[in-house]
Write a sequence for this structure.
């Protein structure tokens, strides 16, 4: 390996690259090099009955933290002022005109059997 001038004004990138090239074994940006160091060969574990008994701590989960499988997914973003319903007034029922409930929750609406809640006719 030759010597390099210490005068930095005379050095260019090609000269520096030629000087350090023998010192570099591999180029880490190459796919084969990354694959060689990142992926290990897969070794099958065999039959589960031949495994030794587990000697570590027992994991106890919190049932309140379980994911629910039914229903609408929970909203994960933070709401801002534009998302709030402050500009809309209170609920006004289309059936009876009272405030505080919608027509689907109106007490004057007929029940599921078709009879009203007013009492016997």
């Amino acid at each position: 390996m030759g010597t390099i001038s210490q005068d930095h004004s005379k050095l260019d990138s090609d000269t520096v690259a030629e000087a350090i090239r023998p010192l570099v074994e591999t180029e880490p940006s190459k796919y084969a090099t990354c694959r060689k160091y990142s992926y290990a060969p897969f070794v099958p574990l065999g039959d589960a009955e031949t495994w030794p008994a587990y000697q570590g701590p027992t994991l106890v989960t919190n049932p309140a933290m379980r994911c629910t499988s039914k229903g609408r997914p929970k909203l994960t973003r933070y709401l801002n002022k534009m998302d709030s319903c402050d500009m809309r007034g209170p609920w006004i029922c289309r059936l009876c005109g009272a405030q505080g409930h919608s027509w689907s929750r109106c007490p004057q609406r007929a029940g599921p059997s078709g009879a009203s809640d007013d009492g016997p006719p």
